[in-house]
Design a protein that fits this description.
heterodimer, A: 370 residues, alpha+beta, 14 helices, 12 strands, elongated, B: 229 residues, 6-stranded mixed β-sheet, 4-stranded antiparallel β-sheet
């Protein structure tokens, strides 16, 4: 007989109560991992769009969102003249409407942009995408939900465009988006001569500081950041990540209340047993450890269940075609460690009052308790 | 007659006062009681006369308002002393067994070992010895809810003796049992205590049981009214 055996027995004999407590934690863990996983996945997908074969990204200083960034395409051409730059590709990010689809992400790119070459061409080929043409290439999911195929046409915004091909992209945003020749995209959105960002691949043996110095001297309105720097500093990413943790934290608070409730009920229902344990020589600390142990075990069960629940839920979500390929959940060890840490803290916080109450029970009074 | 010194006393209670409800209900009013080692003492009196409170005061489960309590040479003054006494020097049996219904009888009896962190093998050996002595060895693997009233109370007796206490406090230990079972359990209790040379302080309002003890202390309205050998 050990303290853990007692703890297990206490939880086992009140299965429904234990299940309710564990469910509270499970829902907290599932919500946190789901929200963090979904938003984290979205952030990673967006990062990968920017990183395509590049180490740096150039955009307008102090813009709240890259969709509002305006960079002259000529800057990309200037950059490509510099010895420290291997390649500079302008990309125009826009949102466009399509029949039955109010929001479709549109990427205005040059034919020389390597990203289409990385995809698996399901219809057409990279050669069908021209800088001076109007033909658009659809991501596989976009083609699916827009019910469009190569050789046909597709209504996007105010215009109708021929479909040059369909490509399966690894990135969810790209797979659910439309690739438009840069000039056509600029025309469609009245953004002639500008793009949202320029992705920069460095020439061998050169440093990102050379691009930054050059940018600082020649284009003060713009900024050049390494991809990692950009991910860390981009306010939209920060907001999304913070929101995810705050929402998850709130879910945990509710889970914590559930654990507190469970443990209070558990203590109140066995006041005499706790008193007898004290008569048998249990110290206040041992009684408190027993209650904290029960709470931690409930929390551990809830964490495992919540992890399974969120993994299953996210898997199902990622398979729903209507989500346009925007769902690419990503639950890494940091997220799991974060959820586990919160679960432990929730268990400890939730058991604090019940443990204090149990530890301070007066055995003689408790044994008179009816 | 042998003179009893303080060193020979198992329990020393000196002018103890205890009240409840912020002094409105006085339960013990200047009680003084000495119990030498190895003596079996019955506390007698009607319900509410203070027998149970006196046992709780001796065990440290209740703090006194005034007076001194000394058990096995320790002043019962603070939490750590009380815990030490309950772990190593005092066993306690109540009117109701207070065993945990979802644990087996063996697991219940081993609860004191969790408190002391005692060696499992030693604990099991002692459990079997006591269970054999009380006749519940064959019931050790049963859950408490599957046991009869007498078996439960014998189980509670085993639990109270697990840490080999010098002093056993029993509060109406046979009060919830039928007459036949009560006799058996009481015989067993006296045998166990006498054979091991332990001290027993017993609260009862059954004069027949009290008469079988070494000494009877009569209580009334929170005071000791008299004694009989």
């Amino acid at each position: 007989m050990s303290l853990w055996r007692m703890i297990l027995t206490n939880l086992r004999r009140h299965r429904v109560r234990t299940a309710i407590g564990a469910t509270g934690i499970a829902l907290g863990v599932a919500t946190m991992l789901s929200v963090v996983g979904l938003l984290g996945g979205a952030v990673k997908m967006f990062e990968r769009i920017l990183r395509s074969d590049s180490e740096m990204v150039v955009f307008e200083k102090n813009v709240s969102d890259l969709f509002f960034s305006n960079v002259e395409v000529g800057v990309a051409d200037e950059l490509e003249q510099q010895p420290f730059v291997k390649e500079a590709q302008p990309v125009l990010f826009t949102i466009i409407t399509a029949p039955d689809r109010p929001v479709v992400t549109c990427f205005g790119i040059r034919a020389s942009d390597g990203r289409l070459k990385k995809g698996e061409w399901l219809q057409g080929s990279a050669a069908d995408f021209h800088d001076d043409g109007e033909g658009v290439v659809l991501g596989e999911r976009a083609a699916d939900f827009l019910k469009a195929a190569a050789g046909g046409t597709i209504g996007l915004g105010q215009g109708t465009y021929p479909v040059a091909g369909v490509v399966r992209m690894e990135n969810g945003f790209e797979n659910g988006g439309v690739f438009m020749p840069l000039l056509t995209c600029q025309k469609a959105f009245h953004k002639e001569g500008v793009c949202s960002v320029i992705t920069v691949a460095l020439a061998d043996g050169h440093e990102s500081s050379e691009v930054k110095d050059w940018m600082g001297k020649t284009h003060e309105r713009l900024t050049a950041l390494e991809n990692e720097e950009f991910s860390r500093s981009y306010s939209q990413f920060k907001i999304m990540k913070t929101t995810a943790w705050v929402v998850g934290g709130c879910a945990f608070l509710l889970g914590g209340l559930s654990v507190t409730n469970t443990m209070i009920l558990s203590v109140f229902s066995r006041i005499k047993e706790i008193a007898i344990a004290r008569v048998c020589g249990f110290s206040r600390g041992q009684v408190a450890r027993m209650i904290f142990g029960e709470s931690l075990l409930v929390s551990a069960i809830g964490t495992v269940a919540g992890w399974g629940l969120s993994s299953g839920g996210l898997y199902v979500l990622s398979r729903i075609p209507q989500l346009q390929g925007y769902v690419e959940p990503r639950i890494g060890w940091q997220e799991v460690a974060g959820a586990m840490t919160l679960a432990v803290l929730t268990a400890l916080a939730g058991a604090m009052y019940p443990a204090w109450y149990a530890a301070n029970l007066k055995p003689a009074e408790a044994l008179r308790f009816e | 007659m042998t003179k009893v010194t303080a060193m020979d006393q198992q329990v020393l209670v000196e002018d103890v006062w205890k009240s409840f409800d912020r002094g409105r209900i006085e339960v013990l009013k200047g009680v003084t009681l000495n119990v030498p080692k190895g003596e079996i003492v019955a506390l007698c009196g009607t319900s509410g006369c203070g027998k149970s409170t006196l046992l709780n005061v001796i065990s440290g489960l209740e703090e006194v308002d005034r007076g001194n309590v000394r058990v096995s040479g320790y002043d019962v003054v603070n939490e750590s002393t009380r815990i030490d006494l309950l772990r190593h020097h005092i066993g306690y049996v109540f009117q109701f067994h207070h065993l945990m219904p979802d644990l087996t009888l063996a697991e219940n009896c081993l609860v004191p070992l969790i408190a002391t962190g005692g060696h499992r093998a030693d604990g099991l050996a002692r459990l079997h010895e006591l269970a054999t002595a009380t006749g519940v060895e064959h019931r050790l693997g049963q859950r408490v809810r599957e046991l009869s009233g007498g078996e439960r109370q014998r189980g509670a007796l085993v639990r109270s003796l697990m840490n080999d206490p010098e002093l056993l406090l029993c509060d109406e230990p046979t009060g919830a049992l039928d007459e036949k079972t009560r006799e058996k359990v009481f015989d067993l209790l006296l045998d166990l205590v006498r054979s091991r040379g332990r001290t027993l302080v017993l609260a009862t309002h059954d004069p027949e049981l009290a008469a079988r003890c070494d000494r009877t202390v009569k209580m009334r309205d929170g005071r000791i009214e008299g004694e009989a050998n």
